[in-house]
Task: inverse folding
């Protein structure tokens, strides 16, 4: 009961953001936060629930962004076709790549995923005829919904785009929530805790890692497409290593292996750099701060903010920690 | 043909840099089972410290290189005590991410101190190349090769002929047994980490005199060094040296004959193929 009220309150608050904050800058940050929620919720399936560190997630969001932007700019295809197309392109790529690499574990997997992202970046950087190289693609159109005579919504307006992103971010979180609560989630946690044991009781570890990898890539593709049509520009910078580091800060500091953790992490760590800029820190100083937070955070709050707060609250109430079962060991 | 010789020469210079960085990285990896993504930052700092020593302290280049190595080793020692010592017990994901955080912290510290614009260390060597029969070699490049060979020989001697080297090799093979016979594992770790940082710094200070310095150079060095370590076989010193040189040459030949745009892609493709088909690397070693 309390849970339903809390959820309704959060939903009402999120829906009210454009009314509460008239400032376009706040809406801009809220839109980026929503895109980040999509990126990290999907990546969390692999990183948090299954315990496999991927540094290649940026490749999928870049593929979604470029796929959808190219369809719109070169062929004039609508955003509403480009969005699923970009996401499917990312998912297809993750399927092909996953077949090659999802049997590899540990440090080797980490390095392969970096190599994949770097190759993807090089291709987008150097295939100038298609991607316009370093200069990027500009003139990506804003999404529009138009039913002649009835209604016309242009998502160029920030408050409209906010609701679009909110809808897709909510969908992403809901799908991840359902997935995690199903046998898939239990299989992923079993793999994380003891892969050989999971295999010996009949869990098809390859199949489940593919589900986690592919779902994450699909939502990253959706997020990439939304990003391209929001900023109306996409360049090879989307493949920068720093973005994947941001995503992992959101997941690890928010609380990996929980649904709420990465969402809270995405909101905090989208707003934080902007706040740091607001108080006058240079970009270099902002990144320095994020690096420091990552090092200190891993040493002192290894489970992440949400599980830590949940445990502290539970202890205050004298109850058993509710989030403890969800924490990675 | 002349182009090929020229390219191989260039590749060996860069490759010797990769080899020096990779030897330290593979030592840390083999000893502590830690993928240190901040390792390339020691290369970057070695170059910047040498730059500052030449440009601000007005030191002679060779003194500046020595000072840069010493300063980086002191920093490496401090970071090992402060951060890395605590990461050795952490699972792969936490430890890896902490080293990535440290790498960002160091990179942007450098950017705040030295700026984001390319700098260069003034080379002490005359611009006229040295003619050795038909081969013409710039003196500064010859110097880099000579120092690399000297450092690797020194490292080899240290490992094979000193008590410390024996202890490092024992720990490398089996931590528990080494600890049982009285080797202080923690001291070995710290010493090895400091030596690794110093070797990366040498590479940075040397290559900094022929390439430009950027705060981002460390991140790139880390990726290249990981490629070298994996291709050579994690934990194999010979593998790190040979595959470091090979990667340098392959990149130079790829850039010269295929496409300079995809030069950096060579290593990434090689590393995926090696990991998928011969996960132990070309020179075996322990995983």
Result:
């Amino acid at each position: 009961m309390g849970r339903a009220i809390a959820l309704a309150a959060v939903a009402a608050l999120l829906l009210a953001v454009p009314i509460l904050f008239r400032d376009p800058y706040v809406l801009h940050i809220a839109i980026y936060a929503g895109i980040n929620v999509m990126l990290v919720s999907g990546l969390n399936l692999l990183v948090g629930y299954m315990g496999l560190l991927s540094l290649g997630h940026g490749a999928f969001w870049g593929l979604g962004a470029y796929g959808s932007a190219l369809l719109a700019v070169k062929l004039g295809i609508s955003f509403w076709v480009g969005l699923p197309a970009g996401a499917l392109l990312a998912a297809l790529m993750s399927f092909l790549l996953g077949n090659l690499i999802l049997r590899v574990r540990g440090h080797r997997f980490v390095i392969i995923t970096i190599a994949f992202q770097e190759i993807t970046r090089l291709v987008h950087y150097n295939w100038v005829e298609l991607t316009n190289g370093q200069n990027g693609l500009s003139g990506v159109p804003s999404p529009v919904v138009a039913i002649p005579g009835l209604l016309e919504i242009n998502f160029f307006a920030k408050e409209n785009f906010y609701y679009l992103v909110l809808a897709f971010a909510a969908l992403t979180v809901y799908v991840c929530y359902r997935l995690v609560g199903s046998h898939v989630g239990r299989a992923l946690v079993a793999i994380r805790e003891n892969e050989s044991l999971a295999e010996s009781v009949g869990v098809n570890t390859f199949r489940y890692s593919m589900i986690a990898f592919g779902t994450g890539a699909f939502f990253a593709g959706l997020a990439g497409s939304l990003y391209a049509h929001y900023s109306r520009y996409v360049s090879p910078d989307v493949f920068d290593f720093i973005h994947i580091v941001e995503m992992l800060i959101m997941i690890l500091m928010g609380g990996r292996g929980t649904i709420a953790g990465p969402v809270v992490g995405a909101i905090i760590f989208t707003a934080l750099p902007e706040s740091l800029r607001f108080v006058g820190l240079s970009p270099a100083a902002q990144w320095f701060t994020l690096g420091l937070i990552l090092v200190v955070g891993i040493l002192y709050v290894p489970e992440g903010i949400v599980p830590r707060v949940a445990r502290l609250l539970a202890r205050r109430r004298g109850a058993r920690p509710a989030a403890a079962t969800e924490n990675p060991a | 043909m002349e182009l090929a010789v020229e390219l191989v020469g260039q590749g060996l210079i860069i490759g010797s840099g990769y080899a020096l960085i990779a030897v330290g990285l593979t030592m840390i990896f083999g000893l502590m089972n830690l993928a240190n993504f901040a390792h390339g930052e020691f290369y970057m700092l070695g170059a910047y410290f040498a730059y500052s020593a030449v440009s601000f302290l007005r030191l002679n280049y060779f003194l500046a290189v020595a000072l840069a190595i010493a300063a980086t080793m002191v920093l490496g020692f401090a970071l090992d005590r402060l951060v890395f010592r605590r990461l050795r017990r952490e699972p792969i994901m936490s430890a890896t991410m902490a080293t990535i955080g440290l790498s960002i912290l160091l990179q942007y510290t450098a950017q705040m101190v030295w700026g984001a614009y390319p700098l260069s260390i003034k080379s002490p060597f005359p611009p006229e190349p040295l003619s050795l029969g038909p081969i013409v070699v710039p003196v500064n490049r010859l110097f880099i090769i000579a120092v690399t060979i000297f450092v690797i020989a020194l490292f080899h001697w240290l490992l094979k002929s000193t008590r410390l080297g024996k202890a490092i090799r024992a720990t490398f093979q089996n931590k528990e047994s080494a600890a049982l016979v009285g080797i202080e594992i923690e001291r070995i770790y710290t010493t090895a980490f400091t030596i690794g940082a110093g070797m990366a710094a040498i590479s940075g200070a040397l290559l900094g005199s022929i390439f430009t310095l950027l705060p981002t150079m460390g991140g790139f060095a880390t990726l290249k060094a990981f490629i070298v370590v994996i291709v050579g076989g994690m934990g194999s010193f010979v593998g790190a040296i040979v595959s470091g040189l090979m990667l340098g040459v392959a990149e130079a030949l790829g850039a010269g004959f295929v496409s300079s745009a995809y030069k950096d892609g060579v290593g990434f493709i090689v590393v995926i193929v090696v990991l998928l088909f011969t996960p132990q690397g070309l020179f075996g070693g322990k995983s």
The two ends of chain B are 39 Å apart (CA to CA).
